[in-house]
Amino acid sequence: MKNYVLSDDEVTFFNEHGYLRLDAVFSPAEVDVMAEELDWQIDNWAGTGPGWRGEWRKVYMDVDTERRSKLTALHDLHRYSRAWCDAVTNKRLAGSIADLLGENVELHHTTLHAKPPETGHPFPMHQDWAFYRHEDGRYIDCLVHLDDTSDENGCIRFLDGSHKGGVRKHITRFPDGSYCEPHLPTDQYSLDDTVPVPAKRGDVVIFHLHMIHGSRINQTDRIRRLVRMGYRDPENVQLGGQSKIRPGLMVWGRRPRTEGQMPFSTEI
């Protein structure tokens, strides 16, 4: 069957390496509007805090940087702005995901990850599966770039081909038993072994749910803005984590109905 958007070479690259950069998915004019609306959301809805917790912070940052490191975050941007409703249903993006997942594609979530200047929060090595666990790998995350990225301001870095190894066990507790955000052991997984994937404003970097990845701290004097969009095959059952109890928008194809399945409740 002919692909909707991607070339055969792009599909092969994704399946082999676990990630793919899509150039200029959004036009400069579209990004201008999306960025303006994103800044409005940051000012009015988003929260800024220390970011992910865990012993990994002592490995990734010195004491002073760790104390000052911040992350600005917000979930479900498409619920706050028309511009981001348009973004999640972008035909080129949705069609690209359909080329990899199949003819039916459901939006699962959107999340802002903005790294403030100079001490913008790094991310330890992890799989996104640990935050929204699904039955299988029919799930793709997308990073929409509102700013050019480089290793200096914390671009995404991938452990090439790691999606083929499936789910890994993550650390989710401090030594005292209290909760921390899931991450992989720092003595087994290092950012130094990963491939940086810088991108331009308007580009989208997509990757498999089981892909191991992380990023360095933002060392520049400007904010670095990314929005993650998660898409899945609607028949990929979620086992736990973020956005589990609610259905998402169908951005491509249809939602199949299993035998005995009831329509979604109007009270959720």
Describe how the helices and strands are arranged.
Blueprint: H1 8-17, E1 19-22, H2 28-44, E2 47-49, H3 57-60, H4 63-68, E3 71-75, H5 82-88, H6 91-101, E4 105-115, E5 123-126, E6 132-134, E7 139-145, E8 156-158, E9 171-173, E10 179-183, E11 195-196, E12 204-208, E13 213-215, E14 224-232, E15 238-241, E16 250-252
Antiparallel strand pairs: 1-12, 2-3, 3-4, 4-14, 4-16, 5-13, 6-15, 7-12, 7-14, 8-11, 8-13, 9-10
Keywords:
268 residues, alpha+beta, Jelly Rolls, four-stranded antiparallel beta sheet, 28% strand
Question: What do these coordinates show?
Answer:
- The chain is globular, with a radius of gyration of 18 Å.
- Helix content is 21%, strand content 28%.
- It has 268 residues and is of the alpha+beta class.
- The protein has a single domain (8-236), classed as q2cbj1_9rhob like domain (Jelly Rolls).
- The strands form 4 sheets. Strands 1, 2, 3, 4, 7, 12, 14 and 16 form an 8-stranded antiparallel beta sheet that branches. Strands 5-13-8-11 form a 4-stranded antiparallel beta sheet, with no helix packed on it. The chain has a two-stranded antiparallel ribbon with strand order 6-15.
- It has helices at 8-17, 28-44, 57-60, 63-68, 82-88, 91-101; strands at residues 19-22, 47-49, 71-75, 105-115, 123-126, 132-134, 139-145, 156-158, 171-173, 179-183, 195-196, 204-208, 213-215, 224-232, 238-241, 250-252.
